[in-house]
Amino acid sequence: MTHSLYVKFIWFTLLTMLISSVTSFYVMNTYYHQFVKEDNDAKNVAIATEMATYLEGLDSSQLSPALDMLGASGYQLYIEDEKGIGLFYGGAYREKILSEDLISTVIAGDVYHGMLNFPRKTFVTGFFANELRNSVGVPLTVDGIEHALFIRPNIDMLFGELRLLFGGLAIGLMLLSILGMILVAKKLIDPITHLTNVTKKMAIESFDEPINIHRKDEIGQLAESFQLMRGQLKELLKKRKEFVNNVSHDIQSPLHNIQSYLTLLDQPDLSKKQQTAYRNIVHLETTRLSQLTKQLLSLTTLDEVTKLQDLEPLSINTQWLETIKRFRWKLEEKEMGLSHSLKADNIMGNAPLLQTVWENLLSNAIKYSEKNGNIYIETYNDDNQITISIHDEGIGMSEEQLNQAFDRFYRVDKARSRKTEGTGLGLAIVKNIIHLHKGSITVKTGLQEGTTISIHLPKE
């Protein structure tokens, strides 16, 4: 059973949020606003009213010492008279913003319920917000002068030790959470870092770095996929090098021959027969080079195609008859026999591309067959598809050769001599075209037992 990394992360995150964020902030904030806020405002208004009653019994000279005493007893006070002169007593406010209009209404006799109307905060409760607007205000008259008195508890003085206790608890929870996150992150990041190092090695074509990651979560699945991808990339790079070597060889070989025979043609003492022979060889090599470049261009074009264009109803049987007619001279040259049974229905396809397939298959069948051999071609309907089968009595292939038969530039003729003409690209082109038509290819063969290639194409 796969242990999902996502599930692990969700559980750990929920636990961290429950301990640190939800219990420390959200629950406290909600509780204050829902159950404590109104009572806290009323309680502080009552205290402010009692203070105002006490202060109104004093003369102006006694007002400031009395306010100092009240501030020292655990309250933050602000008093402003009708002339706009304001003084602070007790602990300092973090924000001292209060509109003149609001102060004027309190001087005129209204009560200010700042704690009750203090806006909600997500992470800081109104109880702890050290702002002048988060206070209560009452009118006050001393020696005939009207004042506005604003008070709020001095939280630092009244709850300093308790805040330190809760602060220490919060810091402890935070440190434990951070430590847990570091450990989890390290466990997650270490294999990714290892894969990054392996990737850097791959960038310089080094594929031997071991991937020792054995897990059952998404990281383990990533490591398995990475290992598979690395193997495929290694094989792709190997084939790319082989491709470049093959292209270089197959281009250099005819060019070298052309150059050599052109040099021979410059000799003054050549007979007419020799000149004709050398020109024929130059012509054959230029034809070979032209065929190679044409097939390379075809492969490049097919590699870029994702969806076939120019589809039309076409007769596979008619295409085969035209192909056989075109290759009749090669059959006669090798004194080979060819028979066919063409009974397939029409299909939707790209006519030029499929014509290329039949030409490549018949060319290969003739090329790898001995003199006086036979070829048999059959097309027939098979449920919702048609099957095209071409059988020859040629040299056949071993299992190892068959596994590489559709690789680019692979040829059974390892010496790559001109005895067997060809570029080694024909079957690669065939494979691409058939796959673009959503078809499939099967091959039955054996050394000196001939080869049967069957192609299956959907009717629609």
From TrEMBL:
<dbReference type="InterPro" id="IPR050398">
    <property type="entry name" value="HssS/ArlS-like"/>
</dbReference>
<keyword id="KW-0472">Membrane</keyword>
<keyword id="KW-0902">Two-component regulatory system</keyword>
<feature type="domain" description="Histidine kinase">
    <location>
        <begin position="246"/>
        <end position="460"/>
    </location>
</feature>
<keyword id="KW-0812">Transmembrane</keyword>
<dbReference type="GO" id="GO:0000155">
    <property type="term" value="F:phosphorelay sensor kinase activity"/>
</dbReference>
<feature type="transmembrane region" description="Helical">
    <location>
        <begin position="162"/>
        <end position="185"/>
    </location>
</feature>
<keyword id="KW-1133">Transmembrane helix</keyword>
<protein>
    <recommendedName>
        <fullName>Heme sensor protein HssS</fullName>
        <ecNumber>2.7.13.3</ecNumber>
    </recommendedName>
</protein>
<dbReference type="Pfam" id="PF00672">
    <property type="entry name" value="HAMP"/>
</dbReference>
<dbReference type="Pfam" id="PF00512">
    <property type="entry name" value="HisKA"/>
</dbReference>
<dbReference type="GO" id="GO:0005886">
    <property type="term" value="C:plasma membrane"/>
</dbReference>
<keyword id="KW-0547">Nucleotide-binding</keyword>
<dbReference type="InterPro" id="IPR036097">
    <property type="entry name" value="HisK_dim/P_sf"/>
</dbReference>
<dbReference type="InterPro" id="IPR003660">
    <property type="entry name" value="HAMP_dom"/>
</dbReference>
<comment type="function">
    <text>Member of the two-component regulatory system HssS/HssR involved in intracellular heme homeostasis and tempering of staphylococcal virulence. HssS functions as a heme sensor histidine kinase which is autophosphorylated at a histidine residue and transfers its phosphate group to an aspartate residue of HssR. HssR/HssS activates the expression of hrtAB, an efflux pump, in response to extracellular heme, hemin, hemoglobin or blood.</text>
</comment>
<dbReference type="InterPro" id="IPR004358">
    <property type="entry name" value="Sig_transdc_His_kin-like_C"/>
</dbReference>
<dbReference type="InterPro" id="IPR036890">
    <property type="entry name" value="HATPase_C_sf"/>
</dbReference>
<keyword id="KW-1003">Cell membrane</keyword>
<dbReference type="InterPro" id="IPR003661">
    <property type="entry name" value="HisK_dim/P_dom"/>
</dbReference>
<keyword id="KW-0597">Phosphoprotein</keyword>
<feature type="transmembrane region" description="Helical">
    <location>
        <begin position="6"/>
        <end position="27"/>
    </location>
</feature>
<dbReference type="GO" id="GO:0005524">
    <property type="term" value="F:ATP binding"/>
</dbReference>
<feature type="domain" description="HAMP">
    <location>
        <begin position="186"/>
        <end position="238"/>
    </location>
</feature>
<dbReference type="InterPro" id="IPR003594">
    <property type="entry name" value="HATPase_dom"/>
</dbReference>
<dbReference type="Pfam" id="PF02518">
    <property type="entry name" value="HATPase_c"/>
</dbReference>
<keyword id="KW-0418">Kinase</keyword>
<keyword id="KW-0067">ATP-binding</keyword>
<keyword id="KW-0843">Virulence</keyword>
<keyword id="KW-0808">Transferase</keyword>
<dbReference type="InterPro" id="IPR005467">
    <property type="entry name" value="His_kinase_dom"/>
</dbReference>
